[in-house]
């Protein structure tokens, strides 16, 4: 499963946050969705003080890859 449309357009932390919450809607059950929404919010808070643009881009890239992996994981189970 490819990342959701728009993944290539994510450039800022806010865009990433919104993208990841949209990814959560693709998950199969409400419990799983809530688990990952909570993880997204926690991660956003943990990294909110990051000001190095290079590091921010690394975080964005990794978060999109992780979201893709998670979506694939649940798609294979169903």
Automatic annotation (TrEMBL):
Belongs to the complex I LYR family. LYRM9 subfamily. This is LYR motif-containing protein 9. Residues 12-68 form the Complex 1 LYR protein domain. PANTHER family: LYR MOTIF-CONTAINING PROTEIN 9. It comes from the Eukaryota.
